[in-house]
Specification:
The protein is mostly helical. Helix content is 69%, strand content 0%. The termini are far apart.
């Protein structure tokens, strides 16, 4: 009686494969081929699919940032206007402690501003501070020729609906600012800037004073003196 060899690969009703290796490769590739055919059969739009993939990657990146949010003293030193060691030598405990006196005291201090910006980055709300700073710079504009173009850039970046760095202001303030764009002046952003300043003062500023960035900074300056 004929006995099959142990190495013989059982064949189906289709044409037999010339070797077990080729059969394995074909079997591995078939699901991918079927998936590709299925995608085209249902009319999947490749550009739309790529857009969805980019959005998914962006969401994963954002969620990754949220899960690894540090809120630490190192965040502050990473964006100091001077080298960290030099900055800490210049910053006294008394200066840092005065940042708790008022929000405006914090904003008026170079290192206080840097520390607050680092904190806002951990909360993904730095656009509020960037808008406030852009308005402060805008009010120093002396060239009438540049006034309209600078106002338009600020409006498109921070105020307009779905602006890339849209700030959180109410509808009435947004529409008032939009009307101000018809005849831009140095005061055209005053109401919007005031709303954002108030929001940061009441919401972000108290959390900053309780954050690790600020408490670690105070500890570092105190250790340096001891």
């Amino acid at each position: 009686m004929h006995r099959e060899s142990a190495d013989t690969v059982p064949q189906g009703p289709n044409q037999p494969c010339p070797s077990s290796t080729k059969c394995h490769v074909a079997t591995t590739l078939l699901p991918a081929a079927r998936q590709s055919f299925s995608d085209h059969a249902v009319g999947t739009d490749p550009p739309a699919e790529r857009t969805g993939q980019r959005q998914n990657r962006g969401m994963r990146t954002r969620l990754g940032c949220l899960s690894h949010k540090s809120d630490s003293y190192n965040d502050f030193t990473a964006i100091l206007p001077d080298k960290p060691n030099r900055a800490l030598k210049r910053l006294s405990t008394e200066e840092a402690a005065r940042w708790a006196d008022s929000f405006d005291v914090l904003l008026s201090h170079k290192y206080g501003l840097a520390a607050f910006r680092a904190f806002l980055k951990t909360e993904f709300s730095e656009e509020n501070l960037e808008f406030w700073l852009a308005c402060e710079d805008f009010k120093k504009t002396r060239s009438a020729a540049k006034l309209a173009s600078k106002a338009q850039r600020i409006f498109e970046e921070f105020i307009d609906v779905q602006a890339p760095r849209e700030v959180n202001i109410d509808f009435q303030t947004r529409e008032l600012t939009r009307r101000n764009m018809q005849e831009p002046s140095l005061s055209c952003f005053d109401q919007a800037q005031g709303k954002v300043h108030s929001l940061m003062e009441k919401d972000s500023y108290p959390r900053f004073l309780r954050s690790k960035i600020y408490t670690d900074l105070l500890s570092q300056t105190q250790r340096r003196l001891s």
